[in-house]
Structure formats: structure tokens, C-alpha cells
Amino acid sequence: MKYDVIVVGGRIGGSVSSLFASKNDLDVLMIEKQPEIGVPLQCAEATSEETFQTIGIKPSNRYICSEIHGAELHSPDGNHFRMYPHNDEIGYILDRKVFDKSIAIQSAKAGTDIMVKTTVKDLIIREGKVKGVIAKHLGRTMEIEADLVIAADGVGSNVARMAGIDTLFGTKDIGSCVQYKMVGMDVDPNLMQIYFGNEIAPGGYVWIFPNEDGVTNVGVGIRNHKKTAYHYLNKFLSNFEATPVEMNIGGVPLSGTVDKTYTDGLLVVGDAAGHVDPLTGGGIHLTVICAKIAGEVAAEAIKGEDISAEFLKRYEERWNDKVGNVIKKSLKYRKVLDKLNDKELNALAKFMKGRDLDSITSASLLGLVKESPSLVRHLKDII
Known about the structure:
Elements: E1 2-8, H1 12-23, E2 28-31, E3 46-48, H2 49-55, E4 64-68, E5 70-74, E6 80-83, E7 91-94, H3 96-109, E8 113-115, E9 118-126, E10 129-137, E11 140-151, H4 158-162, E12 174-183, E13 191-195, E14 205-210, E15 215-222, H5 229-237, E16 243-253, E17 262-263, E18 266-268, H6 284-303, H7 309-339, H8 342-352, H9 362-365, H10 373-379
Parallel strand pairs: 1-2, 1-11, 2-8, 5-13, 11-18
Antiparallel strand pairs: 3-7, 4-7, 5-6, 9-10, 10-11, 12-15, 12-16, 13-14, 14-15, 17-18
Helix pairs in contact: 1-3, 1-6, 2-6, 6-7
């Protein structure tokens, strides 16, 4: 078995990388360890219009559960304010199980071969270059050669580490998340609800995302705490009368991207590379942008017969040019948020009514001096 490109991981990062590599006339194999693409769910399922624009498809009712036009943010004392996206951009809550599979199908139609229930055990490395994978499929171990491998196998990527790239995140940099699909939550069908507080979700937040037909995604993400995310979610839900019909768990990298996302014969994309917004934990739209670039650079490398790290460096340069500043800015915001106690979060909620983050100026901060001098000291670091 020999391919131009092997993509390890069949979720968003893997499927989009495969799609654009195949669209550029490469022979592509995508490997997924689960027997079904999109399962189990490990995502809160929110994304933006940019996701569809990047892939070049129109949103479909098959996997769009609801349209989102803004978010309502709640402070520990119950104060709240609304924020709206720039340029009235529409957000979406997806059915990821259907959406992921749909993108994989698009990739297959473009020419990608797909192997499910297949695990990569090792890499084939010759003369210091990655040249394929050793995989196990239904009890059979096989060597599959390729000119290039794309690692899209999730947070802490084993495949990238096999190639010598450090993709490990510290425990304090991983968001521990648990989510229920709930029936009986009474929420605005077009607004996301976000709850902050060190007693509610230390190092993170609780989210309520309207799904469809009276179903909502209710979850929590926390960081580096002795009690579990499951504990905090159930504590939060004790104030509601609603019934869970599904539970999902996962981990999200929240410390920015890994130091290097390429080496000889290999690219790293998605959660494996840290292509996640450190403030929100959202990664779909960032991963889609980077995965498209990975597929396109793979095509350039194969057609130019140069899979060296020196050539593949352009992948990192391009994704960094597109989303690098966005990730760095969000990390800056997250680090400021980490420093705030509940009293400061309450003052911030009151201050933020009618504003967005980009509207905060040194002059506007003067209004906070009397109420919360310590909060002003924190906020001055992000303007």
C-alpha cells in the first residue's frame, strides 16, 4: 500500500486536510481509530459562518441544530450582559456526529480512501524523514507507505510525538470538560449562555447552547482543580429541572499552539497542534482554516517532490499568518481572566454592559477605578 499522503484522524482536522489534499489530485488515505467517524462526541458543537466559507460549502439543515446571534454572559452575582459577533456574523450549533461524517463523505467523494477502526502503532522513518505508518486494522498489522503524513489525532498527538514533535500539554493547560444533552432547559433559541465564577467553574465556564427541538447542550470546562468537571456540572444543574439524555467528556488544550507543527515528512493540525481558542475553548473554525492549509501545502510538497522540513515550514508560516494573532490575543485575555476573583468578575460584568472587548480603552477604564482598582490593573494588560 502506497499513498501520497496519509492523514491520521478522521474528525474535522483530518477530514478537511484529506479533502483539500484530494482536491489537489493527491492519493490520500485517512485513518480513524473509531469504528464510526464523529463518535464519540467530544465538543460543545459551536462554530461560525467562517467554517463553511473556508471549506466552500453551504450550511445544511442536516447538521445545523440552531443559529446563534449572540451570547449572554453571567457573572457570579447573577449580573449579566450580552455580546454580539462582529459584522452580525451568524454562529451555529452543529450536530457534530452528522457534520464530521458529512465532511468525511465529501473527502471520500473527492478521492480519499478511508480506513476506520484502525490504529497507528508507529511511523515508518527512513533517513530521518517520515515515510508512512505502521497500522493495525481488525487484528492485522500492516505497513502503509506515504510521502507525507498529517497528524490530526487529537490533543497530545501520539503520531507527532513519534516523529519527535513535542505535543504534550501540562495539566494546568488542559480544559477538562463534560457536557450533557438536556431536555427541559428554557433558554433563548438564538443566544448562548455563559456562566463564570470560581465557585461555578474554576479556570473555565459553564455553557448552555440551544440545540434543537427543546434539547440543549449544557457543559462545563475547568482547569487544574481537585474536584472534577462532572462535580461542577451537576452542582450547577441542581438549580434546574431538566433531564440529561447523553453525556460526553473530553479535554481541550488552552495554552496556545505547540512550538512546532512540522518536520520532515509530517504536518500537525487541529487539537494536536493546539489550534484552539484559549479563551473560549472553541476550535472548529481555527482547525478548519489550518487543515485546509495543511492539505494545500501537502499538495505543493508532493508535486514539488520536496517533503523536507524546510519546505513544509510554509505550512506553519501560513496558518500563523491567518490565525496566529487570534490565538495569541485570546491567550492574553484568558490569562487576565485567570487572575480575577469573583468580586472582580462581578465588577467586569457591570462594566461590560453595552461594550465589547475591542472597545475597551484607557479612558473607559477610568470608570472602574473607584469600583475595582485591582480589575483596572488586570485589564490594562490587554488594551
